Write a sequence for this structure.
């Protein structure tokens, strides 16, 4: 009986399949009569710009890129929702730029480090809901600190490492000395920088300032870095600069490798190892340890301060923003922004509390809204400790994205006031700190391997795969 049933069923299938196929062939193609209301994305964005009265730079969008149901994606009550509906399906986003008071949106391929200001504010509101007093904030900070250390891979390398140290002879520049430094941070891997020693003595030990730099191939040899380190030393601090991964006068690897996921863990590890090294100096006061940098160096300043209580004062310059976390892999090349289930640079900066912090911002970049949006958020957290005065902001509405003389003046004043530094002979007739006694050296003169009596170690890693091995780095590691 079963065999007979299967035979009949097979016969029915043999008859049905051709009939079904014939029916399919007979179905008309109606697709060309279906309305999709498709338009070039560039044209739609031009209409959106006119409708909302904003500027939108869509030059990066291919001219032939079409979007279906284009006008239906426009939300006339909300520009941000409109841009999201139009751009996200194609892997684009709109980056808001202040434009020195003439704002515009720039359309680019999706970058996880970018949000729009509206989303930045929403994220801060969300984060604020997680804590309302010192105890709940401390619990949140503990989670963030552990996650940050894990995300950048510091939990994969030795907590302590006594590497080799190479120093050039000191160079005499009036109020200070300069000495080139190569510090081994892991076997065969080095941090390159310079130590600026103060000549004038103090009754006690000297403050220490670590100086990461912003994006430039000159690294710690950049003029703005040399100026501020020399001035810090003239004020009585021991200042140490260091170059970011693959930058500077003595790069260990080609500059192209800077834009990889290796850069962020390397940079943070450099600062940690330099602290280990310098805090052994009998001349250093461990209660006065600062860090300051601009742009990418501002990011490093926030990150290191967040995870290391040995930093007692922090000055991140033109970097803290609720909607931009740094577009380079040295700032956002790991899972760090997802620490604690998702974080933001203002929250990371707030981990400095209750320690003194000066945030420097300007109107020409993503810190333009600091006084209105980010600073109140940070002040609230400082208020949990009853030290709201320990967070300060100096804002330059017409300033650009740099660590120029005006911003350095603000940093000098903050250091001198918080640490009671001796500024005699350093203030000019105009009331400003006088940098004329600082000297900018040629990059070639800052290459430690050019120094007499300093020989490059035979076991220094020469290939990038060696870095991967000693750092235990993994691509896309979570």
């Amino acid at each position: 009986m079963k065999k007979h049933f299967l035979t009949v069923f097979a016969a029915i299938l043999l008859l049905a399949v051709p009939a079904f196929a014939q029916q399919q062939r007979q179905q008309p193609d109606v697709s060309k009569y279906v309305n999709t209301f498709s338009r070039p994305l560039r044209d739609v964005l031009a209409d959106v710009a006119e409708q909302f009265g904003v500027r939108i730079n869509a030059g990066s969008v291919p001219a032939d890129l079409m979007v279906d149901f284009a006008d239906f994606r426009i939300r006339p009550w909300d520009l941000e929702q409109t841009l999201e509906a139009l751009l996200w399906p194609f892997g684009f986003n709109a980056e808001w730029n202040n434009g020195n008071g003439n704002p515009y949106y720039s359309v680019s391929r999706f970058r996880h480090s970018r949000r729009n200001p509206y989303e930045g504010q929403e994220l801060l509101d969300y984060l604020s809901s997680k804590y309302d007093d010192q105890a709940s904030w401390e619990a949140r900070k503990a989670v963030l600190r552990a996650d940050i250390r894990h995300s950048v891979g510091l939990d994969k390398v030795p907590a302590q490492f006594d590497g080799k140290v190479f120093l050039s002879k000191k160079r005499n520049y009036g109020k200070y000395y300069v000495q080139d430094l190569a510090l081994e941070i892991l076997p065969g891997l080095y941090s390159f920088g310079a130590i600026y020693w103060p000549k004038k003595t103090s009754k006690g030990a000297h403050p220490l300032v670590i100086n990461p730099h912003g994006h430039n191939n000159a690294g710690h040899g950049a003029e703005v870095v040399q100026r501020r380190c020399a001035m810090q030393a003239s004020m009585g601090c021991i200042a140490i600069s260091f170059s970011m991964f693959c930058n500077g006068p003595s790069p260990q690897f080609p500059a192209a490798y800077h834009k990889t996921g290796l850069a962020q863990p390397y940079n943070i590890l450099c600062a940690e190892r330099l602290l280990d090294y310098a805090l052994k100096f009998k001349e250093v006061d461990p209660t006065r340890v600062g860090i300051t940098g601009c742009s990418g160096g501002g990011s490093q300043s926030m990150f290191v301060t967040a995870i290391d209580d040995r930093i007692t004062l922090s000055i991140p310059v033109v970097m803290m923003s609720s909607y931009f976390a740094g577009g380079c892999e040295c700032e956002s090349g790991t899972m760090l922004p997802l620490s604690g289930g998702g974080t933001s640079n203002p929250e990371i900066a707030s981990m400095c509390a209750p320690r003194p912090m000066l945030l420097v911002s300007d109107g020409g970049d993503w810190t333009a809204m600091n006084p209105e949006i980010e600073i109140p958020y940070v002040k609230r957290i400082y208020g949990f400790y009853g030290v709201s005065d320990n967070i300060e902001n100096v804002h330059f509405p017409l300033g650009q994205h740099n660590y120029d003389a005006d911003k350095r003046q603000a940093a000098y004043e903050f250091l001198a006031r918080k640490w009671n530094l001796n500024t005699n002979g350093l203030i000019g007739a105009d009331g400003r700190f006088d940098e004329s006694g600082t000297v900018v050296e040629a990059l070639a003169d800052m290459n430690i391997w050019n120094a007499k009596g300093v020989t490059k170690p035979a076991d220094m890693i020469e290939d990038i795969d060696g870095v991967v091995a000693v750092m235990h780095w993994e691509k896309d590691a979570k």
Observations:
- Residues 39-110 form one domain.
